[in-house]
Amino acid sequence: MKLAILDDYQRLAAASADWERLRRRGLEISIFHEAFASQDEAARKLAPFEVLVLMRERTPFPRSLVERLRSLKFIALTGLRAPSLDAQACSARRIPISNTGPGRTGPVTAELAFGLILAAARDFARAERNMRAGRWHEGLRGGTVLEGKRLGILGLGKLGARVAGYARAFGMEVLAWSRNLTAERASEAGATMVAKEELLQTSDFVTIHLVLSERTRGLVGAAELALMKPGAVLVNTSRGPIVDEPAMLEALKGGRLAHAALDVYDREPLPADHALRRMENVTLLPHLGYVSEEVYASFYGDCVQNVEAWLEGKPIRVINPEALN
After folding, report:
1. Do 276 and 296 fall within a single domain?
2. Helix (H) or strand (E) holding 90
3. CA distance 109 to 63
4. Which residue segment(s) compose the domain that 209 sits in?
5. In terms of Cα–Cα distance, which of 209, 109, 201, 210 is closest to 150?
6. By the 8 A CB rule, do 218 and 242 touch?
7. Which residues 6+ apart lie within 8 Å of 307 measured at CB?
8. Are residues 260 and 305 in the same domain?
9. Which residues, including other chains, have CB under 8 Å from residue 171's CB and lie 6 or more apart?
């Protein structure tokens, strides 16, 4: 039986769990370190595998791909969910999907988000590029002190509340908005609930902590970007499509938006020729929000358990139980 571990971009999967437990059960394990260039390539290279270990939603698995993988019998998914994985298509093929615990993604993602706020405030990305190119202060902005500035948080769930705590420690004023937020909940997190329009119009920094859904796709578009105050910074560590990417590019090019600090994009990995890579007023990370050795060990360790349980005919953590019928 063949098992494939997908999208191990950092080449950390092999050392993150005891895969020998599965090899001793007769599984042949292959690791893919690069993203597939197309769905056709994914279908061709994954055709021989009965078991797949997916890293979140790095490789999309729509119905059209699931139906082409005729050998596929089981999916081990890292994390709780992957919107790009068609669970219904898997259920129709009686392919169970076992997820993992969330790992300690809360602190690692919130820390990264606030790190991007700091980096944008002080122009760290451009300064680092200067140093590597033999320059010094050339072209750098003067920098912004966070104390006394206003941080607007779109989405005050667990992640947003953590970021609010960090902001208060830096002496920032915190505003928050989401569709279901209450004034009491905002107060508990040390924030003030306001309308989305007020948040955008008055915040020096706006950070997004919402789940991607049909309600949040394109939530920050041209109209919302136009509301942001001159010199404001947009931070996105949630999902790229929450922000209208073409509208953001126009706002950055025109100077309406002073800076964007991004960890997520419409297409990932971000294409090598993408316009964002050529812009100076951006700080870009390669979707590292949940990435840490501790999280990888938790994810992949649970995946080994999931595959073992499936092999024994007693699958655990199954998110599509109808596939077992």
Report:
1. no
2. helix 87-92
3. 30
4. 105-284
5. 201
6. yes
7. 3, 22, 27, 51, 53, 74, 76
8. no
9. 146, 147, 148
Domain shared by 50 and 127, yes or no: no
Q: What are the pLDDT digits (tens) for 175-229?
A: 999 999 999 999 999 999 999 999 999 999 999 999 999 999 999 999 999 999 9
- pLDDT at residue 130, as a whole number: 96
pTM comes to: 0.94
Which residue type, as a one-letter code, is found at position 312? E
CA atoms of 179 and 20, how far apart (whole Å)? 47
Same domain, 60 and 154: no
| CATH code for the domain in which residue 315 is found | 3.40.50.720
Number of H helices, E strands in the chain: 13, 12
Do 91 and 113 sit in the same domain of this protein?
no
- Both 246 and 164 in a single domain? yes
Alpha-carbon gap, residue 175 to 308, rounded angstroms: 47
Report the amino acid identity of residue 216: T
Q: Is 234 exposed, middle or buried (0-12, 13-18, 19+ CB in 10 A)?
A: buried
Within 10 angstroms of residue 274's Cβ, the number of other Cβ atoms is 16
What is the number of structural domains in the chain?
A: 2
pLDDT tens readout for residues 43-70: 999 999 999 999 999 999 999 999 999 9
The residues assigned a catalytic role are 239, 268, 287
Q: Do residue 126 and residue 267 come from a single domain? A: yes
Q: For 246-253, what is the mean pLDDT?
A: 97
Closest among 57, 120, 84, 141 to 282, alpha carbons compared? 120
